[in-house]
């Protein structure tokens, strides 16, 4: 696969960030380090778009909050949605969400990044977009466990549906818009990530469902953001009184506090209740 002639690569950070806008495509837990390195080189009000889907451990900060703290001169934005990098690189049709607090900026960035096959929809619901991207990774691990345990298509559908209910409750507690949570960066990304082993989080779940330990499942070297996000997602949910039993079960499995079988039993033996 050839890189477009208009794209140039450099290992000089100052040259890389000498731009009208910056996209940072590093893992969520590395964003603060990179943003801090870039910060002294920025002009005032430079848009900085996070492409990671996660929540920073320890600080419990979302990606745009990390940018705001680490690079105060930057204008934070977030790019998220149902997209595999290889599909985008191959020019396959992909639609995502790009969010910034200022609608004019979000729209301008979407136009700048858009192409015939890559379609960003702009939004001002920054937190809603961030929550969709972070929570769906954790839920995708659960979906992978269902696949790895060969629990069947009915169980998979139930898991995704109830997982989305958790994501929506969590998002609502932060004031996220319903249309964001049911849109590309929420439900759309959840559907993609919970449906194919091309997803690193789903693949991690498959390994856990097939009986590997958390350490063995992580040993493949592929980064699964949900493995880092699960515990902090559960902590934030507890602080806000949001019930997220699937996310809690995933966090417990990853921390080796519960076996996969025990986690499944804990979910199946929860009291019967009204749907919602």
Question: What do these coordinates show?
Answer:
This protein has 276 residues and is of the alpha/beta class. Helices cover 52% and strands 10% of the residues. It has a five-stranded mixed beta sheet with strand order 1-2-3-4-5, sandwiched between helices. Helix 6 packs antiparallel against helix 7 (153-173). The termini are far apart. The model has no long low-confidence stretch (mean pLDDT 93).
Instruction: Name the helix and strand elements from N-terminus to C-terminus, one letter apiece.
Output: HEHEHEHEHEHHHHHHHHH
Structure annotation, total helices = 14
Distance between the termini: 46 Å
Spatial strand sequence of the major β-sheet = 1-2-3-4-5
Largest sheet: 5 strands, mixed
Rg, Cα atoms, Å = 19 Å
Estimated structural class: alpha/beta
Low-confidence stretches: none
* Number of β-strand runs: 5
Strand content: 5-15%
Indicate the overall shape: globular
Helix share, percent: 40-55%
